[in-house]
Amino acid sequence: MRHGFGISIPFIEHIGFELLRFEGGESTVRYRPLAEHLNIFGKVHGGVMMTLMDTTMAQAARSVQPDHGAVTIEMKTSFFRPGEGSQVMRGEGRLLHRTRTLAFAEATIYDEAGQACAHATGTFKYSPLPAPGSQGAHPPPQEKPYAR
To answer: Most buried by CB count within 10 Å: which residue of 19, 51, 131, 136?
Structure first.
């Protein structure tokens, strides 16, 4: 339960996202790029930016039902400009509509100058969170050698 998310999300903890806002169908997630998250051009890798938008949208959806997770069903992404590897990125998410089981959300990533770098929309399925210590909770990671 690090970085303000209130639940353990090992992959997100590994990347270093920090949840700043989580209320009323809105979320803000901050991210400081690490060298290993950059592409060959020194820009934030598109996959990391998509993960930031996915996480930001899911948290906007969860903010109105925090006892559930929000599992991505589909996501559409548009990139406007590259994320600079030396700048803190900020994801702003908003829940657009929800049903009993689904959430429809959007997110935009901004750079330090406040310029939009990317935008996404997504559909998420609400899923009850696993009980701590249950089969669905995160087991300790085990190192596995890469297959050659």
So the answer is: 19
